Amino acid sequence: MFSSLLDVARNSPFRGPLTPAQCEPSSLAAPQAAQSGMAAAAVVQGDSCEFASPKYFALCGLGGILSCGITHTAVVPLDLVKCRLQVDPDKYKNVLTGFKVSVREEGMRGLAKGWAPTFIGYSLQGLCKFGLYEVFKVTYSGMLDEETAYTYRTFVYLAASASAEFFADIALSPLEAAKVRIQTMPGFATTLREAWPKMLQNEGYGTFYKGLVPLWGRQIPYTMMKFACFEKTLELLYKYVVPKPREQCSKGEQLVVTFAAGYIAGVFCAIVSHPADTVVSKLNQDKTATVGSIVGKLGWAGVWKGLGPRIIMIGTLTALQWFIYDAVKVWLRMPRPPPAEMPESMRKRLEAEEAAKSK
Question: Which residues lie within the region annotated Disordered (predicted)?
């Protein structure tokens, strides 16, 4: 399936606004490139790979592994307290009390509980999330003509990110289930090596995917917001905030803008996905619970418990993920397309329509 998607993306006769600007081919190569429709796949001087090539997508996946694996593991202590606050609010009450109780009962080392399934699970998720997002974004853009792709680019971002997250959550779900058990069930297990066989022996393989549907409910809206909001915020920052064009900014300045856009996107991500996050934590803690029973027990206010720390965690997390992902692209000398710009044909047509109206 993925090879066919790559073929569609690379052989599309359309050149959408989501592909990077390319240097003009040499005079000898120009006619042949124009006839084959592959001019957009040419390697720009200084880049390590072609845009939309298999190597490009593979390196995007590597960037996703590093960005998600590192950042989620770094905030394990906060994630642990957030999960415990969601499943036992009477005991942990708030973030500060949660830290105090956790340290008093298990010591400082206890705050690292669940780091292994977090690192492995979110590395796999990052591989699919970022790698497949790039695949689907290029593919969906290539299915449209240039002006349509630009006009409806937000829908392209939303569709591409939702498609990527669907597969990313299948990779994440088993590790997420183990992580929540380790963090929220005292005495169950302290390591992934202990938790995994115990869950498998007692409940079978189904327990690893029990939370998959609510995980989709949490992660797909989160990821759609994460990518679409980031792309649009980045576009607006360069248009209205950054005092000079992107091409005149240094790599470091561009990474600062990436971080800012990522943080703004992260705040909205936390809000839209939090109720589902609470339900997932409860489901993985209680093997007899259902989505309906949890929502009925907690009520509307209950599913929003822990939103404050999650906004801090997800805002910082998302900003760092985009920063690391973009930094990996810089480090590996990958093509880094600028924010979408209005196609020249569309600009000229709108100018002509405006001129006709003014006559």
Answer: 340-359
